[in-house]
């Protein structure tokens, strides 16, 4: 369960590893703000991070990175010059999930969102984690703030 949440979070913390041939992402220092909402959190969790995006990073496809561990598979993916929509499903250690998301970028700014539904097994060791469906909503915004240090 924890691994699936970490993967979901990482997916949105590294979105600038943008789709080189399709997305316009400028290398440099970027600031990302991510908001995650889920039932087990008392309020939306907002984090802001700064990251140096290199030319190499700008050519990586984060969806391929997400799928590389073999626990997730792409169901649908539609991509244009500045945006992408996708649907995927994952199975991590008995926790299954399905998600739908979107990205958009224009060179110096980017944004995205993902709605994921996880089917949680009964986990007696985690009393505050009820079995059944749990919805996780994640949104993020990024902006280039200058050259890397």
Structure at a glance:
Helices cover 15% and strands 50% of the residues. The chain has 149 residues and is of the alpha+beta class.
Folded structure, characterized:
The chain is an alpha+beta fold and 149 residues long. Helices cover 15% and strands 50% of the residues. The protein has three helices and seven strands, in the order H-E-E-H-H-E-E-E-E-E. The termini are far apart. The N terminus is likely disordered.
Features:
149 residues; alpha+beta; 7-stranded antiparallel beta sheet; 3 helices; 15% helix; 50% strand; globular; disordered N terminus
Name the overall outline: globular
Number of strands: 7
Helix content class? 10-25%
Contiguous uncertain segments of 5+ residues: 1-21
Count of DSSP helices? 3
**What does the largest sheet look like?**
7 strands, antiparallel
Structural category: alpha+beta
Biggest sheet: strand arrangement:
2-1-7-6-5-4-3
Through-space gap between termini? 36 Å
What is the alpha-carbon Rg in Å? Answer: 16 Å
What fraction of residues sit in β-strands? over 45%
Q: Give the SSE order as H and E letters.
A: HEEHHEEEEE
Mean pLDDT: 80
């Amino acid at each position: 369960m924890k691994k699936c949440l970490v993967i979901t979070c990482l997916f949105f913390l590294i979105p600038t590893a943008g789709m080189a041939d399709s997305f316009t992402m400028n290398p440099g220092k970027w600031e990302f703000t991510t908001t995650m909402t889920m039932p087990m959190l008392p309020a939306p969790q907002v984090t802001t991070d700064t990251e140096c995006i290199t030319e190499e990073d700008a050519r990586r496809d984060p969806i391929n990175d997400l799928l590389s561990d073999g626990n997730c598979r792409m169901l649908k993916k539609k991509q244009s010059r500045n945006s992408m929509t996708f649907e995927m499903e994952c199975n991590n250690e008995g926790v299954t999930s399905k998600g739908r998301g979107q990205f958009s970028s224009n060179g110096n700014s980017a944004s995205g969102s993902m709605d994921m539904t996880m089917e949680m097994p009964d986990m007696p060791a985690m009393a505050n984690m009820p079995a059944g469906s749990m919805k996780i909503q994640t949104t993020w915004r990024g902006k280039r703030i200058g050259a890397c240090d």
